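re: ur question from earlier - yeah i can do the single chain one, its not a big deal. heres the input i used so u can compare w yours
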Amino acid sequence: MSALIVAKILDQVVLATDSRLMNRNFSEVSTDSEQKILEIGKNACFAASGWKYACEWQGRLAQELGWAMSNIRQLACALDAILQPRLKKLAEILTALRSAQ
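and the output i got, formated as tokens:
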């Protein structure tokens, strides 16, 4: 499980997250020192989940799109359109794994 905190203090936005990543099959901690907030464009950041497998492709995709797009709303819509089907499939796999245990 990942934690992400966002706070607006006066005219600044502060982002914070934990730094734990779990390995691909969730059997153990991969690291407790992963930077999960990535700069993906001018004034734009992306916070990845705590699953190593998902962090790798989510972060890479967000950075590729972020630096290519200047409109934050268009970026959000593009990320959503690409990530939603993958995340839905991921949820189905994890649900099946849980049911099998």
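The two ends are 19 Å apart (CA to CA). not sure if urs matches, ping me
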